[in-house]
Amino acid sequence: MSDYRPPSVRVSGVGLAPVGHGMKGTKTTAHDVTRVVAGTVGDDVLIVHKLRILDERAGSRRAACGVGKPKDETDEWARVVNCPACLAIDTE
Predict the structure, then answer these.
(1) pLDDT tens column, 25-62
(2) For 25-53, b where at least 16 C-beta lie within 10 A, e where not — what string?
(3) Using CA atoms, how far apart are residues 85 and 2, in angstroms rounded to an integer?
């Protein structure tokens, strides 16, 4: 199984020892990283959002731009994010 992640889903530091961010005294661990995937929210399958994984086990995801309600269904897709609001948000 490969560790490859497309650029829109790239997560640094996962599975590694703490990684410094170039500032003295600041470190992050793998637990501090929120995984981001591309996907749709609700019935709209044309707009692909950056979805933050809130709970990996429950499959709970929310769009970075805030679209949708907390209980809206989300589907992960291997497609390019095309939501202008999500693209404007830096999630890396």
Answers:
(1) 544 444 445 789 999 999 999 999 999 998 888 888 99
(2) eeeeeeeeeeebbbbbbeeeeebbbbbbb
(3) 31
CA distance 86 to 59: 20
How distant is the alpha carbon of residue 83 from its chain centre? 14
Query: Degrees (nearest 5) of the Cα angle 64, 81, 38?
Result: 65
**What's 17's DSSP letter?**
S
Considering the entire predicted model, what is its pTM? 0.62
In DSSP terms, 49 is beta-bridged to: 39
**Cα–Cα distance between 4 and 38 in angstroms, integer?**
15
